[in-house]
Amino acid sequence: MQDTYKFKIQSTYFSLRPSEQKVAEFVLKNTEDVSKLTITELSGRVNVSQPTIIRFVKAMGFNGYREFKDAIIMEIGNNKSKKQELLYGFELNKDDLIDNIPAKTIGTTIEILEETLKSISIDSFEEAVNMIIKAKRIDIYGVENSMSVVSDLVNKLIYLGLNIRYYTDNYMQNVCASNLDKDDLAIAISYSGTSKNTVDAIRNAKSCGSKTLVITNFEDTIINEYADVSIYSSNSKATIYGSAIFSRSSQIAIVDMLYMGVILSDYDKYSKILDKNSIISEDRSY
User: Fold this and answer.
1) Whole-angstrom distance between the N-terminal and C-terminal Cα of the chain?
2) What is the set of domains in the chain, with CATH numbers?
3) Which residues of 155-183 are buried (b: 16+ CB within 10 A; e: fewer)?
């Protein structure tokens, strides 16, 4: 997967210049057209200069436009050889067939994860990992659908031996937030970025001098006003009757990224801690 042109674009998208992002968006949405366009024609279609396109393909790791086009053509051929194509997008109505739900669900999840990869700033991700490993104490806040993601992050960080506090009660979340200081870290997880209880908790933590990390879906929301660092899961909406049913997929992926980032920050230290904790749980399995 890492060798595909699509993966390369998505994994570097956030670091591209705005003009190069225009090229990236056009390529992702018009792949077959791009495979037939010369660099002059692509320049005209996207309304950017040819040097911009050259910078873009080199940022993807290709030596030139010809090599980039060859990769696209090869991937188009590989995709056409697949027998089953996943259905992207999820609009559920009463006439849908139950047979289509597995493909729709997996297809939508894949699409959202790809959007998430485009939304991740490597600088923000690295800073988030540094904040976690340097914190004396870590509070984690969330409500409703986000609680499953909060619980997963709590479990992973506890297994790494970090000092974590986590309450499902919103009142206790705010009490904890009010007792943090500059050596602590508060993490808030909210798909919408507007959940009042979560916003109140992270605001309280910020006012006490704590460092703050927010995991949310949208950039222009109130919760980001109180974040030292924000990580965005994507800007896609996939809802059924108002419920963001796929939000957990991208947020869980971010939790896994943070978990692996912490381990890599001091592999020997954290692998020993994980080995020790795995012994504790050995007698709980058949």
Assistant:
1) 35
2) 1-82 (1.10.10.10), 119-284 (3.40.50.10490)
3) ebbebbebebbbeeebeebbebbeebeee
- φ and ψ at residue 164, rounded to 5 degrees: -115, 140
Q: 36: pLDDT confidence band, cut at 50, 70 and 90?
A: confident
Residue 95 reports pLDDT greater than 80: no
How many CA atoms, within 13 angstroms, populate the side-chain half-sphere of residue 213? 24
Owner of token pair 């619980």: 151
- By CB atoms closer than 10 A (0-12, 13-18, 19+), residue 83 is exposed
Nearest to 242 by CA among 145, 176, 154: 145
Query: Other C-beta atoms within 10 Å of 44: how many?
Result: 12
Give the SS3 label for residue 123: helix
Q: Kindly report the average pLDDT of the chain as a whole number.
A: 81
* DSSP classification of residue 87: P
Report the alpha-carbon distance of residue 125 to residue 128 in Å, rounded: 5
Sequence letter at residue 246:
F
CA dist., res. 146 & res. 189, Å (int) = 6
pLDDT category at 235 given cuts 50, 70, 90 is: low
Residues 201 and 190: their CA atoms lie apart, in Å, by: 12
Give the pLDDT confidence score for residue 286 in this predicted structure.
59
Predicted TM-score of the model (pTM): 0.68
User: Span 195-204, mean pLDDT?
Assistant: 88
